Amino acid sequence: MTTARGIERTAERNSTRTQRHILDAAAHVIGEVGTAMTLAQVADAAGVSKGGLMHHYSGRLQLLIAVVDDANDRFREAVTGNLDLSENAPGKMLRAYVRTLCGGDLEAANYFGSAPIWNGLYGLPEIREVMDADTVWWEQQLALDGLDPLVIRIVRRAAEGLAAAYSYGEETKEDLQEARDLLLEMTVQGVGSHQVNPG
Amino acid sequence: MTTARGIERTAERNSTRTQRHILDAAAHVIGEVGTAMTLAQVADAAGVSKGGLMHHYSGRLQLLIAVVDDANDRFREAVTGNLDLSENAPGKMLRAYVRTLCGGDLEAANYFGSAPIWNGLYGLPEIREVMDADTVWWEQQLALDGLDPLVIRIVRRAAEGLAAAYSYGEETKEDLQEARDLLLEMTVQGVGSHQVNPG
DNA sequence: CTGTACAGACCATTTGGTCGGTAATATCTT
DNA sequence: AAGATATTACCGACCAAATGGTCTGTACAG
């Protein structure tokens, strides 16, 4: 296999690049037409032929799984990138989550998160599986922050709801960010009868 | 046309009943498979034939429009039914909205609201239209309540996010209702730096 | 000459939508 | 009152287009 080593490397580079195109294209198409996504649509948007598409993903289901998986990964990375380790109040992860969803980046709001965007995909058990795994992961991560669980849920779901509304064009970027700031505040001050007692 | 009057009445009764079946079935199917909804699936679930279905709705698009329209109507009615006119604090409508979405009724959480459930339908301009109209209507209704607009948005989106999570099985009913109570509280006490000053 | 990335014709199935037919019910005619 | 007629609800065979997926061929890197 020494022969093939070199091949594999450049081939892999190309392969990875078109796979990126395909995943992006698919996510975009899903954002537009939901589960009605078509292989032809994706191939078109990705600038490859149907054969090309099938070369990388053996079928529609496999493609969908890959898309969801990839979106989950990217969202995790985005949130991690928004972590502010210099913060001392509990709730670092939750705040990063909020910043990511409500920062005004349409991509993040649109394609990421435990996103409503992916509705309909829940119907497919294989996909439900990877989504559930992601759900569990996030619940654990956010719980580690040391905040009142109820405050976590309220803030988190508010962020998701806001992001969804934003992605549907129901919120302006300014409004979204204003709301985000209030959510961040809530992670420090708590909510109503659920005040946060520092440290 | 006096001739047809009687016919039309009983026929309308029957017609209305099967239309109800069809709309419910379609909403259910959409909840499962999203935009990939199929006329055959709907006909099956509604217990009618394809011909029967086409008799009531002239095409897929017309059916989708009817479903969305109907869902919007039912949601409005549900919220109105949850109004508590004996409340004296501002925010009656918002609280009814929250109660409806986060009351634990899966139907309401699943099929109603400016619901993420309907994603993918946004891609169809005709549907986008009726959804946008509904969006505007709700914004006006909620704004009439006399609450801080930012508090309205936070509470509302949180309720929607919670309902979405609940419909995906990510929230228990008890957790949902606990969160609901806190949201209701927020409409009275305000949030963080946005305290509500009672009128 | 081998293995990989990709193209595009091709095929079986599915899907949206049409159409002719039937049963039921109400109205009109006599 | 009784049939003829009209109108509506609904069925299911049928068709053309779209869709998922296969297969053969080609270009190119090593």
Report on this model:
The structure is a homodimer of 199-residue chains. Chain A has 199 residues and is mainly alpha-helical. Helices cover 70% and strands 2% of the residues of chain A. Chain A contains 9 helices and 2 strands, in the order αααααααααββ. In chain A, strands 1-2 form a two-stranded antiparallel ribbon. In chain A, helix 1 crosses helix 2 (39-46), helix 1 (2-33) crosses helix 4 (60-81) and helix 8 (149-167) runs antiparallel to helix 9 (173-189). The model of chain A has no long low-confidence stretch (mean pLDDT 88). Chain B binds a DNA duplex (30 and 30 nucleotides) through helix 1 and helix 3.
The SSE order of chain A reads: HHHHHHHHHEE
Distance between the termini of chain A: 58 Å
Strand line-up in the sheet with most strands of chain A: 1-2
Low-pLDDT ranges of chain A: none
Shape of chain A: elongated
- The averaged pLDDT of chain A comes out at 88
Computed over alpha carbons, the radius of gyration of chain A is: 19 Å
Q: Structural class of the helices, strands and pairings of chain A?
A: mainly alpha
Chains forming the largest contact: A-B, 42 and 42 residues
The description of the largest β-sheet of chain A is: 2 strands, antiparallel
Individual helix count of chain A: 9
In what range is the share of β-strand residues of chain A?
under 5%
Oligomer status:
homodimer
Number of DSSP strand runs of chain A:
2
**Helicity level of chain A:** over 70%
Draw up the topology in text.
The structure is a homodimer of 199-residue chains.
Chain A: H1 2-33, H2 39-46, H3 50-56, H4 60-81, H5 92-101, H6 106-111, H7 125-143, H8 149-167, H9 173-189, E1 190-191, E2 194-195
Helix pairs in contact in A: 1-2, 1-4, 4-5, 4-7, 5-8, 5-9, 8-9
Chain B binds a DNA duplex (30 and 30 nucleotides) through residues 2-8, 10-11, 14-15, 18, 38-40, 48-56, 58-60.
